[in-house]
């Protein structure tokens, strides 16, 4: 660690050189700059550098290296583990780098490192184009894609990382590096699921797809109908085209106009069938689900994809703890276990207990990349969310219990964007043991000192 005088001089120089704002403890705006979406995360960086371009990022990395500071990178700030912050280090804050440039002729988009799904979706929808995005609009594109990228469109257009064309990266020595299939291909391979381990992604280029229409069916059922809903949904998705996606979930009836007052604050089962196509085709697929006895039709019909992306946006200021298991199937005995898990779910709260279908373009995608959960047909995702810190123990234990209950049907793989800090074995499970060893070599080449460690970390070999 540098001496106080050297650190002070370096901080003054960074403030002078950086185009964006620089915050240190005690500065006006510092506390606001360190807030992330998960209210359980309360960390105090030594410096927060709000970069506006690649040059700012390079200056910030060099500043941190000169002072022997660890580096955390903030894109959307949506990591449940709080990887966008650290204690006593530097945070490279990319929120001012949100540009999105669409090339309709090439059906490609270049996205700056701080852009959110909302930025991406609004820009591409203007051209009738989309790519797989996260299930909420506030997710940062960079972390989402480099972590794998599962969303409503993944059965149709593949995982987000399958659509990665190129990445501009600032490495641990402050250099700008281009990674693609033709340039630095080993780094490009590692960025398919290796997240922020190798540098700061200042831009990503992604494939786009034409999507003239998007539609969905979103229905609420009483919880006693849950097992029938899950089994019917499973059977529907088994023969549905790749255009169909979504999930079945348990949730607290929200205080919204669409939810009758007597159901608000109570446990409900919900079915969401998304469809990359028109309403008529969606209704044919959803017919068995629409025929089940339900309480509320929240939405059944055509909807702009960009609006669907906002439907389950998680509110800021909540306490979050998530986990996941990828499943070998969805047999009746697991359906019973899944539905029973809802009985102990914290209600009322923002907690969601969900199963997602996989298959389609996910399973058909490029198997050379480090995505070990690609072949799993289903995933379960206990998504704990509550307001009061007094509920932490109960909420965390419920998530852990649900995950433990699913293990007899688990493939052993996991999507790292769905989990918090669960230890090195889970990081390996999210990448694959052979892939992890290969990534250790890439890490050694690009970050031998493990400067970028506030993530699902890969240590250099």
TrEMBL record:
Which cofactors, if any, are listed as required? FAD
Alphabetized UniProt keyword annotations? FAD, Flavoprotein, Oxidoreductase
Metal-binding among the record's keywords? no
Is this entry keyworded Ligase?
no
Where is each FAD-binding PCMH-type domain found? 40-211
Q: Which PANTHER family match?
A: BINDING OXIDOREDUCTASE, PUTATIVE (AFU_ORTHOLOGUE AFUA_1G17690)-RELATED (PTHR42973), FAD-BINDING PCMH-TYPE DOMAIN-CONTAINING PROTEIN (PTHR42973:SF39)
UniProt similarity note: Belongs to the oxygen-dependent FAD-linked oxidoreductase family.
- The name of this protein is FAD-binding oxidoreductase
UniProt source species: Streptomyces cinnabarinus
Q: What is the lineage of its organism?
A: Bacteria, Bacillati, Actinomycetota, Actinomycetes, Kitasatosporales
